[in-house]
Specification:
This protein is of the alpha+beta class. Among the domains are: 103 residues, Immunoglobulins (Immunoglobulin-like, Sandwich), CATH 2.60.40; 28 residues. 33% of the residues lie in helices and 25% in strands. It is built from three helices and ten strands. Strands 2, 4, 5, 8, 9 and 10 form a six-stranded mixed beta sheet that branches.
Length: 218
């Protein structure tokens, strides 16, 4: 019996807790917004809606860099000149962003009575001035072409300089003298010309004949 009473009391407490803190489903519309800067309609509106009327309803807006960012890392969106909170009724809450900029890109969450919404992603890109973009593209192509010409000129100058240096080295270089095959050999002339003195020596050698006298040059 006591267990039955304890169970009934527990169920009663749970029912009271649920009644005081009802689980509410929060939706956000739209889920994605794409915008460009410098547009005439440069105002974005994010709607946060609950499935039932909540009184009182406390709403807060947060911004994250991406969808999977932790709740503790989400930054509070402060109301100001460009960010305005608008509450039409207890079920609908609005975040109005005026003059959207590139830095406004991110994921915006509404938090209604401690219940998080699914988030709305806002992507803002810069307005492209087509004539100006084409002019920049042509200038970039011209600079690339000019850089190519300068590089080719530098390479040509280096090659020409190396060729001139090689020619200069070839002109300075002297070939060594050809060594004579008989260099270092000494021929004795016996005090006169070699061929002019051969006849007298031959006569003397003939006169001595078989005596075996030595020649004067020996």
């Amino acid at each position: 019996m006591r267990w039955l009473l304890a169970g009934c009391c527990g169920l009663a407490l749970i029912s009271i807790s649920v009644a005081l803190n009802p689980v509410v489903t929060i939706t956000q519309k739209p889920r994605f917004i794409g915008a460009k800067t410098r547009q005439q309609t440069n105002t974005m509106i994010i709607c946060c809606q609950s499935e039932r009327k909540l009184l009182p309803a406390k709403v807060e807006w947060f911004k994250a860099s991406r969808y999977d960012e932790e709740e503790r890392d989400r930054r509070v969106v402060e109301t100001g000149k460009r960010f305005v909170f608008f509450n039409s009724d207890p079920k609908l809450k609005f975040l109005v962003v005026h003059d959207v900029r590139v830095e406004d890109s991110g994921v915006y969450y509404c938090k209604l009575n401690n219940t998080w919404g699914p988030g709305t992603e806002l992507q803002v890109v810069r307005h492209i001035d087509l004539p100006r973009a084409l002019h920049r593209s042509k200038m970039k192509d011209g600079l690339i072409f000019l850089q190519g010409l300068l590089l080719a000129a530098c390479i040509g100058a280096m090659l020409l300089r190396n060729r001139q240096m090689l020619k200069k080295q070839d002109s300075i270089y002297e070939e060594p003298e050809t060594d004579h095959i008989y260099e270092g050999l000494t021929i004795e002339t016996c005090g006169g010309g070699l061929y002019a003195e051969l006849s007298p020596y031959a006569q003397v050698e003939g006169a001595q004949g078989a005596e075996g006298a030595e020649a004067p040059w020996e």
